[in-house]
Amino acid sequence: MNSNNTKFTYELNNSILNTGLHIILTTDEDDVRPVYISGNFNQWRTQDKEFIMEKIGIGLHHYKFPHDFDYPAELLYKFTKGDWSEVEIDIRGNRTENRSTHNHTGIQKEHVARWRKNWLPFKQSFLPQVQLISDEFIIPQLNKTRKIWALLPHDYDNSSESYPVMYLQDAQNLFNEAAEFGNWEIDKKLAVMSEYKIGKIIIIAIEHAEEDRIKEYNVGKTVLGKGQGKKYIRFVTDTLKPYVDSNFRTKKEREFTGIGGSSMGGLISVFSGLRNPEVYGKLMIFSPSLWVVPELKINSKKANSADTKIYLYAGGDESTTMIEHVKKFQEDLISSEFVKDKSKINLSINRQGKHSETYWSDEFPKAIEWLFFNTK
Asked: What predicted TM-score, i.e. pTM, was given to this entire model?
């Protein structure tokens, strides 16, 4: 600890010891990201500006609770860099248990050895069971077959629990280590979510149609020509979902059923949700190719009385119009009253985000947590 840090601690010890609870945090890894305290006093919010720590030196942070703070009987807390994907971990990469204190005054000294980055590292024992449903699952609506996977919670075989389901497009890029452009690493992200008891879910991953991908994900007649999207949506909704519900322990209702994807996979997921709100209560839409349908019509008559939850993501370094298109889509959803409660739309924008699997990978667990396991 340098001389300035020593001086700061000395001043705390000698002049303001009884003016409230002070948290002093030392860290082995120092970077520019701010540090937040999250706990049972703020519903475990990870980016609460009221609980951002003051950086007072290299690897040294300080927070003082207000003099009139309403302390819970036992104060429980953790440190993050603003998200559960960047929460504190121990020197070996293991999760840390909640910190706690009953003190309302004085100095509480804490130390963080490492920070989780993009939800990693993960533990092998929490990886989901990856099951190939079929190499050639029949798509009667298109007279084709397709490879489809199920990612089941790690303890699925030892449980009688039923789970929510998310249907995802472009399975080739979701957990395939050999994917040409990288992958979302959803298996690893699900492992961390399971370890942290955020929630368990079944993912149904549908491989795209290779050279016919754009045609299958294109709905109606658009700037890309005539697509087969309506038939593809009917396949997922009328054929695949009933099969999944019959063969796995699923929660079948709309509030436990989601669909999602990125780029053109995001676009077909938009249409799936707009056309079948009675089936899909959760939409996970990353970097959607909304430019394909400049005059997208939203039929509010199809809206369900129980609002659909929609997680929208866009990167600022994807195209000159990506953020503009996603914001307009959000406004159209609200003005059409397809979603009657603004809080049911979570718009996440990464100004540095590129149109790539790396950024969708980072967003995936945040979206799943908000859509399925955030009850606020």
From this structure: 0.83
